[in-house]
Model the fold of this input.
Amino acid sequence: MYHYEECGLSNVWLLDGYEIEVDEAYGDLVSISSVHELHKTIGLYLINEKPELNGEEIRFLRKELNLSQKNLAGILSVNESTVRNWESDRVAIGKPAELVLRALYKEQAHGGGALIEMIEKLNHQERTYESDNMNFSYDSNRSWKHKELEAR
Done:
């Protein structure tokens, strides 16, 4: 068995799928088959099987989503220091934020992007002025569209 600490999680052990070569100059060199697929499998295990995520697991998922602490904080509408506190186990992540993090990872693992796009759009809307009026038009394709949608 190989203790795979390189992923950032202290409790991951590989039963197979790796080779260890001894190099006189550098010591043990570990080669792991399909690291990307391994990380995806770890991430899916975390979001589907773990009832609560700890700091290491939150950090792992954030990094797999390729997000900085600042970017994840923006998506979840929390302070960057809040994400830092979750990852260092100083503060437990709240259930709503944890559910969104799990959903983001699931979507990314299965090749989506609509959820993170929607959240980023909602965050942007909070920072911009929107009119109280919503204008819709019916076009020749017999479908309704928001008036502003065409201009974007």
